[in-house]
Amino acid sequence: MSxxxxxxxxxxxFNLDPEVAHDLTLQQxxxxxxxxxxxxxxxxxxxxxxPLAGLTFPNRVGxxxxxxxxxxxxxxxxxxxxxxxxxxxxxxxxQPGNDKPRMFRLPDANALINRLGFNNEGLEAFVSNVKKSxxxxxxxxxxxxxxxxxxxxxxxxxxxxxxxxSGVYEHxxxxxxxxxxxNTKNLRSLQSDEALDSLLSALNERKQALAxxxxxxxxxxxxxxxxxxxxxxxxxxxxxxxHHMDGVIATNTTLSRDAVQGMPHSEEMGGLSxxxxxxxxxxxxRLLRQxxxxxxxxxxxxxxxSAADAVSKIEAxxxxxxxxxxxxxxxxxxxxxxxxxxxxxxxS
Length: 348
Known about the structure:
The chain has one domain (2-343): Alpha-Beta Barrel (TIM Barrel). It contains 11 helices and 13 strands. The protein has helices at residues 2-14, 18-32, 74-78, 123-132, 157-168, 193-214, 230-242, 278-292, 307-316, 325-330, 333-347; strands at residues 50-52, 55-57, 61-63, 84-90, 103-106, 111-114, 141-146, 174-178, 220-224, 247-250, 271-274, 298-301, 320-323. The longest helix has 22 residues, at 193-214.
């Protein structure tokens, strides 16, 4: 039923401003989750458990961060068949993000450009919403994604990440450190060797203290960009091991416009997501796997609009995958399609 409903709803949503459509969709998910109305988007469940990073992922397809920045729709997203859902990015203090308009569709490329800028209601509201959700009690995994406030100087970024880690730790199955959004000034500079070493060292120290305090171990992942050369990926891989990070998420949106040149909105500032990111994301995943070896957890994200795209991520070296823009273009049926294909792949 959800496939038919989305085929009806998509033209209506695509006639709206992208951010208006985004907000409307989240409002409806928040209102209908945990009610009989969630059958409008509920998908058949695919069980495909995978041990990874000290956790057991219920299946191999997750919701990427960015869609639900305030953690309002965790249960609604869960109804779509995701084995794990990641929400955020949340910053310590509320912030409005960048000026509007700040989200643009490129339908000919199955792509989006956004420069939202971590618009969110802040850590306190975020944690309150997380605590209301039922998703984790159903045996699914919840990732909480943290970032820095725009007004925090880049040299003080570590302070914001430590506040975020401390605030979400006890409520998360894993925590993601987002240093790869292109929409917060200078944020990606934290991916450089010295800045990265300093940040990861501080995070690892705080993670150990929090594990002792809460008597539980919560994995911490690092989310990186696709716009990295081979040497930069090698440096990041070395830092991940050196500072005992539990996994890596590859990748965020891209600044490249090579695949969308000449299309309406292609010159807008911001991060490009969707189909054009697939090849670049897979390149980074392959490099990470080469440097990190077969056991290091990698979550692959970027450009999944079909089961074949998801399989290509696994073949590149990812253990599990996440989708976001594909959900907007293809609807909730994509979640079931991908979960089914990855289960077949794992059993072949």
